[in-house]
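Give me the fold.
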Amino acid sequence: MTPDELLAAAYALDGPDANRALYAQWAATYDSGFIVDSGYQYHEQVAEVFANFGLDGVGADEAVVDIGCGTGLAGQALRRATSVAVDGIDISPEMLAQAAAKRHDGVPVYRTLIEADLTAPLAIPAGTYAGAISVGTFTHGHVGPQALAHVLALLRPGGRAAIGINAAHFASAGFGPALGRLVSDGRIADLHLVTAPIYQDADMEDPDRVAHVAVITVC
């Protein structure tokens, strides 16, 4: 399938079982096929946003969690910017196997990898992490805005996150109002959006080709 056909299949997913089935088939060729063929650079963009915004708030003995880590590209990009420990969470064991093989300077990119369904509360103690990144997980067909609260619960007070959301789905799936409610409810202390290209040479006026990266400080 072409990159656009693969994206259409991903956006058509309905529920955790469908996600597992698609990514079981896609995992082995995701990096060498879709990423290369589409000029995908989303992971680099979100990692850069977090490195610029969040790293100064992460202590030497703390860790960052990569939400929906997939094959580990975002974690790998983040490790190129910092020596901070990174854990990964994903619903697909096949994608996690690819992430487990990722190395930076000969060392595994991820300290720990966790198989979990992000649409349900996570069996991880609240406040475990100082930071979080997420690339392409919060979108139509994957994980909706209701799961944002599950992710923020993983962060300690003052923890920071950079969560990339496709601009078209940010509007259509209600991510803006959901983030606004989290601000109003006292879950988010600071929020701003950074617009970033998902693909090389992306048309920045095309909402399907760019992302809003929600840059968050939790209360």
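The beta strands are 63-67, 85-90, 103-104, 107-108, 112-115, 129-135, 155-166, 188-197, 210-218.
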